[in-house]
Amino acid sequence: MSRKVFALTCLMLALAGCADSTPTVVAGHAVSMLYDPGRVGGLPVSEGPSGPRGDLPPVTPRVAGSDGGEIDRLSLLAIDDVEEFWTQHYAQSLRGTFKPVSALVSYASTDPNTPQVCGADVYQLPNAMYCRRMDTMAWDRAKFMPTARKYFGDMAINGTLAHEYGHALQNMADIVSPLTRTLVREQQADCFAGVYLQWVASGGSSRNRLSTGDGLNHVLAGLIVIRDPVSTFDNPISISDEHGTALDRIGAFQTGFDGGAEMCAEIDMGEIRKRRGNLPRSLFDSENPQSDITLDEPVLATLMEQLGQIFNPANPPSLSTSAARCANGRQPDPVAYCPESNTVIVDLPELQAMSAPSDQSTLALPQGDNTGLSAVTSRYALGVERERGVRLDSASAALRTACLTGVAQRRMAEPMTLPSGGDGLMLAGGDLDEAVTGLLMNGVVASDVNADTVPAGFTRILAFRSGLHGDIDGCFGRFP
């Protein structure tokens, strides 16, 4: 069963009817423009092609080491676009003077004879990077960029190089020092990438276009898994994992997309802590992640008991792993909520497949047990909403469900003793990443009772985040 998105462009045509191939229109509203399912960062949600507007130009001698192929042509197009944006807008927001990076280098990480880049060996280093000491931008055309493009689309190249250009901007504007933590540097660079891509999405670029629906979703997904080797003052290329969690990185990107470059320059550890709010530090500990567990019937029974304690409904939803469909014919994909029987139904083999740990060394999105746990939690949340007497089939319901799931996930990040005497499931480092990438790529957690979701992963994640930092009543107030 495919997951549909609310056909926002057909809202005004609902009475007249849309074409048979158009998803069913469900009316809904949000109380804030920030959570408006029809807008992203002030722009209308749009679908359509993302990537170059026309033919790719040839690679100029400006790119050292190039083979003249398509990846280098896409990369040069992206660099030209990023530089045009900052040439026009740098002085409006940042100190100093904008100056294009001195050198661009393309290399093949698969070639043992590839020349050094930035004074370091890049054989078997599939990545993209900015080398401060040599003011050089470099990318691997053989493995890294093609893989990023394959999984996240042409605009993943723009997103990657816009992030790298963010590191160059830090030095131009003198907003970092040798003592600046890597996490701050990376969050600022993600933010600067968001500023540039908002310009593309708004139609400002003559070279590229970006839809604010699926196109932006894929760029955000790429942002989560594409991590550059960090060039430090002492080491021209060093590998670091201190880029932040998926929630951190998308939050920084959204700061730039929504607020502009001034806000990127203000990111420091204080701002990052404020964005993380009162969430337990264990959720941001990528060095000590909790081991994934297999989602079987006993684990799901524990989750249902735990959710009963968190939400305290008068009539808790029941769980079924044997029901093939709801009374109205709705099938689990891999989960569903049946309001007529107040039951969460689960296709257990499919849920286990959704929750199988991914190999992130291959640029796979973070996936694991909390991918499935958060999906089941979202269907339980619909039972809580049913008890409140609110509508379950709307865009507002989809975002409310994501918000309530965030509330539950926050509570599950701390020890909990269940009424039965056992311990509740406890989230740890990396688990939120699994929920966030699910929100981006399949939208289960931010879907209504009909499994329809809002088109922008940007907005789905904002709703989920509002629950992480809020409470149950806040979700019902924000998404009536």
Automatic annotation (TrEMBL):
<protein>
    <submittedName>
        <fullName>Neutral zinc metallopeptidase</fullName>
    </submittedName>
</protein>
<feature type="region of interest" description="Disordered">
    <location>
        <begin position="42"/>
        <end position="66"/>
    </location>
</feature>
<feature type="signal peptide">
    <location>
        <begin position="1"/>
        <end position="19"/>
    </location>
</feature>
<dbReference type="Pfam" id="PF04228">
    <property type="entry name" value="Zn_peptidase"/>
</dbReference>
<keyword id="KW-0732">Signal</keyword>
<dbReference type="InterPro" id="IPR007343">
    <property type="entry name" value="Uncharacterised_pept_Zn_put"/>
</dbReference>
